Every structure is written in structure tokens, then in C-alpha cells.
Amino acid sequence: MRADQVLIEHHNVLRALCKDITGKPAGSAEREERVDDLLVELDIHMRVEDDLFYPAVAAAGPLVAVAHAEHRQVSDRLAGFLRTTPMDPAYEGQWQAFVTTLDAHAEEEERDLFPPPVEMTASWTGSGTGCSRRWTRYGRPGRSSFAFRSEGPVAQDVNSGSNVRELGQP
Fold this sequence. Notes:
By secondary structure, the protein is mainly alpha-helical. It has one domain. Helix content is 60%, strand content 8%. The protein has five helices and three strands, in the order αααααβββ. The chain has helices spanning 3-22, 29-56, 62-83, 91-112, 129-138, and strands at residues 146-149, 152-156, 163-166. Strands 1-2-3 form a three-stranded antiparallel β-sheet. Strand 2 (152-156) and strand 3 form a beta hairpin. Helix 1 runs antiparallel to helix 4 (91-112) and helix 2 packs antiparallel against helix 3 (62-83).
């Protein structure tokens, strides 16, 4: 699997987490737990993109600058949500603003940078092996719902550790 495909698959993991969180009652322990899972996944994802992918496609110039700016927007929206208590009338609006910003960023990235619009540096050509090593290094054992097997990434239930589905499969 190519490294950019790994990132697309992880976008889907982030989207699924957001959908799951949206379906949980505000202030519930289950929702807060899933938000914690999202924070771990989002941190890992942004680190991999910022440290590996964006430098590898640096020749795309303005597209990479836009992607970095969008990461800041996602972080700002997330901060707004995290500062809002579940009892605040603005809570759901802050959540929806974050989800919308995150999804817009992922869609733009998939449209404009996947497949890469420029020749990628050697660190990102071929398989997603380097990406999977970075995911493992950035992740905390038992917390990331994005795991790797030799044939590619799979989603895992963070509580039981069992595979939920093969990513990219219906």
C-alpha cells in the first residue's frame, strides 16, 4: 500500500470516530472516551503528515502551505470545542464546527495532494512501511485504533483490541 493511501485510510478512521462521537450523548463518559481516542488519532495523523508527507511533497509549494494552514484551523476549532463544557449551549455547535473543518481539510487533501501532484522524495515512495513505523512510534500502546499488519492498516476496537474491519473495505 502506498503511503498516501495509508493517510486516506486514516482520514476514514477519523471520520468514523467523529460520526461515532456525534451519536453519543453530550457529557456522557462514552462520548468523552471516544473524544480521547480521537485526540490520540488526530495527533498521530497530523504528526505523520507534518513530519513526513508534507516535506516529501514540498515541491507542491502553495498546496503544502494551505495544508499547514488548515492544520492550524483544525487545531483552533478543536481547542474551541475542548474549552466548551457539555452544558454550554454552544457545545454541539463547537463540535460541528470542528467536524466540518476537519472533514473539509481531509477532502481538500485527498483532492489536491493524493496522489501527490509532484514527485515525492525517497522517504515516501513505495509502500507505507515508513509511515507505519512512524504511526507506531507516535502512538501510545493500546490507544490508537489504527494498527498495521503486513497487508496494510486495519481499524481496531480500542477497548477489546479486536479488528473491526479491514480499512477500505465496505
